[in-house]
Amino acid sequence: xxxxxxxxxxxxxxxxxxxxxxxxxxxxxxxxxxxxxxxxxxxxxxxxxxxxxxxxxxxxxxxxxxxxxxxxxxxxxxxxxxxxxxxxxxxxxxxxxxxxxxxxxxxxxxxxxxxxxxxxxxxxxxxxxxxxxxxxxxxxxxxxxxxxxxxxxxxxxxxxxxxxxxxxxxxxxxxxxxxxxxxxxxxxxxxxxxxxxxxxxxxxxxxxxxxxxxxxxxxxxxxxxxxxxxxxxxxxxxxxxxxxxxxxxxxxxxxxxxxxxxxxxxxxxxxxxxxxxxxxxxxxxxxxxxxxxxxxxxxxxxxxxxxxxxxxxxxxxxxxxxxxxxxxxxxxxxxxxxxxxxxxxxxx
Length: 348
Ligand code: MRU
Known about the structure:
The structure is a single chain. By secondary structure, the chain is α/β, with parallel strands linked by helices. The protein has 2 domains: about 5-135, Four Helix Bundle (Hemerythrin (Met), subunit A); about 140-345, 3-Layer(aba) Sandwich (Rossmann fold), CATH 3.40.50. The protein has helices at about 35-40, 50-65, 70-85, 95-110, 115-140, 170-180, 195-205, 220-225, 250-260, 290-295, 335-345, and strands at about 5-10, 15, 30, 150-155, 185-190, 210-215, 230-235, 235-240, 245, 265, 275, 295, 300, 315, 325, 330. Strand 1 (about 5-10) and strand 2 (about 15) form a beta hairpin. The chain is globular, with a radius of gyration of 20 Å. The protein starts with 6 loop residues before the first strand and ends with a helix. 5-S-methyl-1-O-phosphono-5-thio-D-ribulose binds near residues 93, 158, 234 and 247.
């Protein structure tokens, strides 16, 4: 099976698949300098919580490469300022902040100034490699949750494109499929940015896993008819109590799943868990441009001047989440205990 790797570090250059051009074109773009990496995150040419984290780690390494490291204090000060800029690229996925904080901590712990730049590249490569290993672990922890002969629905894109490789929710589906189980896969189109239609459907095709694309609003009807055995999505930030921010529409799916007696799973690395937030009410939700709703690929579809609201994410209260699959195992309620344990046992 060919691996999809959306981000590649080669000879000091960051290369990435431009996800805004998929599935019609597979274009690899180079980021020259950390500001171009920040721009790739802002414009969603790189997107998905873990992929944003990996890109941010390389952005810190690139920012360091641009600085004079002869004076350690001023180097660290300037690197922190770049870190603040990188963290501001998008607000909801905490993997971005997690990766930058980890990189800055490595820089601060290095006493030999001449080694700082190399150490940062090594750390960013490690974060990328760890992410793939973590996703494969989540796959093996979660694969038995998908029933043989049943069906699964996923939302947005929580596949290889959203990570270093393999994916989170899609990784669990893939691991189950590779285990020999056979089930029906549904994926939502995910309005308005169409991560499901453009990216997840593309990934399933590459993986050779048959999938059926449905409009977001068909999910309730399919659940009511008994056509969905379980739902599995990724996450952008999980609060200490298990409340989970993910792509807009996730909350709707979770409530519908509960109403129809269907298990609702989240697959996410512990770097997505934000123990500093007690509940999901404190998660900042990205507000995106109105034009993503009023236009379709530059063509106006709503009346001129109409007001649109475009939140990029929503928060699913923990009471709707059956289990959270992390690299440390499958966490179940009460999440305040199980997530705390998962984060402590991962201990990066
Ligand atoms: O706005 P996006 O495309 O970055 O949103 C992505 C999602 O909501 C994903 O479900 C989430 O990041 C998990 S990715 C493994």
